[in-house]
Design a protein that fits this description.
236 residues; alpha+beta; Arc Repressor Mutant, subunit A; 3 domains; 24% strand
């Protein structure tokens, strides 16, 4: 299980390094956040987090400001958030979040990847019961921080679970408490590294490494698509 965890982490870090594709996705995330809650990050938790995520990926300040300005432009009027669900090999389920201005293009691309892998698209809503929506905040543990004390403080902001792995701390809560948790971390002086809403499998399944590698390959292909914002599976 340890080797599988290390493989997944390495694979995810490799995907995060694909800056040429990450920046456009981050820009869309910022633009959609502005359209939803306004251009002021102080009053828009979703935008504040999108900007933090962009900075964590070394996205230039000019790109961030351009994405915010673009939110009021006509070219974003057609962009919408659409979710797709699919069944892949080895009983793995895929929940795919997209931001697209052309749903025909997006579904065609996703279907081609899933079909080639021997899977099939599923009706919308088929997999909702397999995932819990969670707010997830990640940061590097500051020197001298008492995690037990921080945990007690964050419980008042909706914390459900806090865990540490090799100096990186992960904070989990219900998705409805995302803004409160973010604010709670900021009050504690925590410099957030990454944050967002994730879908966590409530009954995750273990896979042997060869099958895990195959699934990671499918995730890579999906995430390479410019419209795909995030891919979640029921793999442990």
């Amino acid at each position: 299980m340890g080797r599988a965890f290390e493989y997944r982490r390495a694979a995810k870090e490799k995907r995060w390094d694909k800056m040429s594709k990450v920046f456009p996705k981050l820009a869309r995330s910022i633009t959609l956040a502005v359209r939803e809650g306004g251009p002021d990050p102080d009053s828009n938790a979703k935008l504040r987090t999108a900007i933090l995520n962009a900075k964590a990926q070394n996205m230039p300040k000019d790109n961030i400001e351009t994405a915010i300005k673009r939110a009021s432009g006509k070219d974003t009027a057609e962009i919408q958030e659409v979710n797709y669900e699919a069944k892949g090999p080895h009983g793995v389920m895929f929940f795919i979040e997209t931001a697209t201005d052309n749903t025909n293009r997006t579904i065609s691309n996703i279907r081609a990847i899933i079909n080639k892998a021997g899977g099939q698209m599923l009706p919308t809503g088929s997999l909702e019961f397999l995932f819990d929506r969670k707010a997830v905040i990640q940061f590097e543990k500051p020197e001298g921080m008492d995690l037990e004390e921080a945990e007690l403080e964050l419980i008042d902001h909706g914390l459900e679970e806090l865990e540490e792995n090799e100096g990186t701390v992960y904070v989990y809560g219900d998705y409805t408490n995302f803004g409160a948790l973010s604010h709670g971390c900021e009050q504690l002086g925590i410099e957030i590294g990454k944050a967002g809403l994730q879908r966590v499998a409530n009954t995750p399944q273990e896979l042997p490494e060869d099958q895990l590698e195959e699934i990671e390959g499918i995730i890579d292909k999906l995430e390479d698509d410019e419209d795909v914002q995030a891919v979640f599976t029921n793999v442990a």
